[in-house]
Amino acid sequence: MDLLNELTHANLDPAVLDAVRALLAQADQLANTVAVKDDVIKAAHATIAALKLELAQHRRIRFANKSEAFTAEQRDLFEECQEIDLVAMEAELQRQRDLLVGEKPKNKRPRAGRQPLPPQLERIVHRHEPACCECGQCGHPLTLIGEDVSEQLDIEPARFFVHHHIRPQYACRACDSVTAAPVAPAIIDGGMAAPGLLAWIAISKFVDHLPLYRINQIGERQGVPLPISTTSDWAGKVGVALQPLADRMAQLLRMRPTLHADETPVRQLDPGQGKTKRA
């Protein structure tokens, strides 16, 4: 401002004075931009330092000796969460580094040696053709010379649907009889649950160790009521229906010379008590 006041009282040409004012304004703007960038760089360096420290702490917890880390049960409980946190922090650290050097984050190529997806899975083919079949440079027709093929694994979450059964009834006017298709055999006579739903509940409960209240929550997200009292009743009746199969498997197992069982106890959530119980 002092320089501008001196130039104003120096009786300079107005055009020159306006040019000087524009240059000074541009210089102030550049100075402000540099100051902002300096603040951004300082913040990025602080974030990177904090991420490095946190990453080192998680690695120490994950890979340190037993005396310096969690107990065996604690490691098993938090192992998956630690893996997720480590990957997330490494990704965020790389993103901060890319932003600091002014480069766009690069998508890393898939690792060599990735296991192929199982061939028995359903394949939904998506064919991505160019928007135009003519060359965008010269206008000549394009010729197919190859294909770039890639695969992504996807999943359809639990989807509830209803089997709507209609059995028309036909009458014979000659003998006054009524004919209709017989009702198919069911695990639970007159029950609402189809075999697929009963199998899903049994597998979720006894194979995936999913508590019934969580199965209830899965149903509630789609507006399907699955009370714990109902699902426990279904699970019990499925167990009775499968008892002959269990008896036959036990008979075959007892015919072997050696049996091995894993009786390692686990902690099971007990929602009613607000804690876990030994199972």
Unreliable segments of 5+ consecutive residues: none
Alpha-carbon Rg, integer: 35 Å
Task: Say how many strands there are.
Answer: 4
Q: Which percent range fits the helix content?
A: 40-55%
Percent of residues in beta strands? 5-15%
Largest sheet: 2 strands, antiparallel
Characterize the structure shown.
The chain is mostly helical. Helix 2 (14-63) runs antiparallel to helix 3 (72-100) and helix 4 (195-206) packs across helix 6 (228-241). It is 48% helix and 5% strand. The radius of gyration is 35 Å and the shape is elongated. The protein has helices at residues 2-8, 14-63, 72-100, 195-206, 212-221, 228-241, 243-254, and strands at 170-172, 177-179, 267-270, 275-278.
Question: Key terms for this structure?
Answer:
single chain, 279 residues, mainly alpha, two-stranded antiparallel ribbon, two-stranded antiparallel sheet, 7 helices, 5% strand
Q: What's the structural blueprint in terms of helices and strands?
A:
Elements: H1 2-8, H2 14-63, H3 72-100, E1 170-172, E2 177-179, H4 195-206, H5 212-221, H6 228-241, H7 243-254, E3 267-270, E4 275-278
Antiparallel strand pairs: 1-2, 3-4
Helix pairs in contact: 2-3, 4-6
